[in-house]
Amino acid sequence: MLPDPETHTIVPGPTSVDDLRELIESDAVNDAALVLDRMSEDERSIAVTGLPTEAAADLIEHLVEEQAAEILEQLAPNVAALILEELTSDVRADLIAELATDSASQILDVMSPEEAEETKELSRYDPESAGGLMVTELLAFESSTTVQGVFDDLTTNSDLYRDIDVQYSFVVENDRLVGVLPMRDLFLAKRSTPLREMMIKDPIAVRDDTDMDTLEDVFDNHHFLGIPVVNPAGELVGVVQRTAMEHALAAHDRSDYLKSQGIIGGEEIRSLPVAERARRRLSWLSVNILLNIVAASVIAMFQDTLSSVIALAVFLPIISDMSGCSGNQAVAVSMRELSLGLIRPSELLRVWGKEISVGTINGICLGLLVGMAAFLWKGDPMLGFVVGSALCLNTMVAVSIGGMVPLLMKRFGFDPAIASGPILTTITDMFGFFLVLSMASVLLV
Amino acid sequence: MLPDPETHTIVPGPTSVDDLRELIESDAVNDAALVLDRMSEDERSIAVTGLPTEAAADLIEHLVEEQAAEILEQLAPNVAALILEELTSDVRADLIAELATDSASQILDVMSPEEAEETKELSRYDPESAGGLMVTELLAFESSTTVQGVFDDLTTNSDLYRDIDVQYSFVVENDRLVGVLPMRDLFLAKRSTPLREMMIKDPIAVRDDTDMDTLEDVFDNHHFLGIPVVNPAGELVGVVQRTAMEHALAAHDRSDYLKSQGIIGGEEIRSLPVAERARRRLSWLSVNILLNIVAASVIAMFQDTLSSVIALAVFLPIISDMSGCSGNQAVAVSMRELSLGLIRPSELLRVWGKEISVGTINGICLGLLVGMAAFLWKGDPMLGFVVGSALCLNTMVAVSIGGMVPLLMKRFGFDPAIASGPILTTITDMFGFFLVLSMASVLLV
Question: For the CBS domain, which residue ranges apply (chains A, B) (predicted)?
Fold first, then answer.
């Protein structure tokens, strides 16, 4: 049994390498990662260097990729290489890809030539492709091997295979994948049977350049825990585990959330240097402030209207905020339906139809609410009408744009997570300000 | 090999049950789910009833839970029961929990008594606990069983075990979990060895009420693909697969994203009825509009100031929007660090320290930008100073609140995903409007 969860909750404080090792070896690697996060840069590399290689690798694997890369860059290349060699091929390749070019090549230089070559090859794959997600650690046998031959190999190399998932083994002929073999079938087979006679022929496999969406479809449509990956020549090059794909999908979604909130790149941890964090956030904010100024310039064009009906100034931020809220609901649902595969980027009309019906109902309700508030405050029914109907109309505009923009972004190759919000709010701000102020200039002045 | 991805992209249109079945049987279940999504309520239940039970179950499993439950409620109870019996225990229990009470009991009534009892028990677990995530389909043997006995059982019941992951089998004594056995060890063992002599004793296990965060820690700290679940009496009741936990975590994160954008409940699909979607979205919008009116009332208190410096009206929405942007960046990073376990809810001071430094830099940059724009527009350096310094100060307030509110929400048991945004924008709006207008009333009027 596990210890009580409470005992896992440590309060980070000054810690020696020994404490860190103890945490890792008592299976509290996440706590160790937290302790490391709170150290200074120098302390981190001293601590990681002082750990046994296996513990250091375990720890590195539990860090956010960016932080892991930062630490590896500060280590002596041979120490970093030893740690990397303990990791699975996909994690190793991802980290090498994350490193600065010169650090990466220094570390690859001290790795064994084959491992360096393999790592370099793997790190060239798009991290969100089958090649980028696969591990090369797998069991493969020639089709002429007998069941007894497999057993012998398993016995001889059991140490080597300790960390490999052996739900399936793969059957090859001259490196080309020709079959797959659920390991449990071996229990029931005669020892002299060659694998070619008992394997599942023409197994489901994916090309190494298959993208994550397609891969997700394949895993959705089959109950496999792993899918073999072949290169264009049909040679078996690795296997994607279902957990690796689930993990990558979750990371992708989380990064979409961060991007939608203005964290460019989809990742920030607070132990990064202040200047770096400020710079990244500012790159997003400065685009937004320019868009904001553009939108607000609509107000500037109606200064005379505003001077005569100063109460309107109270309602401008409300219209801007509420249209943003309504529009962002529609953005979120579109993002979700895109990721679930429930809409295609081309189905603009369907989305618009579904949004405008909701937007009309909600626009009327919100418009009535704000219009009533304006009327009660100033006793002017026309002020209530102008403000209320402007919010009503702008809600309908906001849900339409909010629903459709993610589809358009995706269709034209932009990142919907990062671009949808600013586009939405700029358009709805401009339109909302224009609506209320132009109506006011006709009806209230 | 898989067919070309393009052939998977069908355009939904009028479809017969046969077409639907063909899609499911040719491993395009996601496409089938999309086709079903586009049908009317009545068409859906006719289509699902017309499918072979296994195909219907496959399809139901690929739907959003809410939609699956809606369809099951419309089916004849015996048809629904047959479909549910094809699903794994955890999916079945989740769906039963999602159904309206009377539909659920009608369906349970026609299931076999044992299966109904088990499903009822499972559906009582919190879906985000070990009990809610586990499956009861597993291999368990008494500790006195020999390797030969296991082989015999596997051979006899191979049909029954077809859909079970058999990476491990579990060893029990009077239902109590006493050991675990990697299946591959069976290859290498003598047939007469009893399991108790070769099993791994005192295996890692979790209690059925273990929450998802703790479960995630356990999976992070070990490389297991599955973890056995025991009840308070130490009896083996199920196994949580790593994929199930990854899946639930991803769903949780996605639902957090939707909640943060104002989709109450964390889920909406556009095939739900318009009135229902409008009602849900409106429940969030109406809270926000009240908060907005409260915040804007600050502007109302400064109408005289506004009348004399009408240009200020242009900058109020900019200050409101930009403070929201800066604050939401901090909210997103806090949400992410909370979910990664990189901060504890009690570490307010650390978060504030990290945020205020970034907020000061960004506040100065944004303030300078807006101040300069105001100065260039009106040629009034004091207007620039008032607007710029108000935005600068309010940015610092926004990141502080944005960073800390999710921690406070979590600490006091509220859902940080749904509450953080409105709290943030209400406070920063009020403070921002007050800052710029009170400074203006002193320096500009």
Answer: 199-257
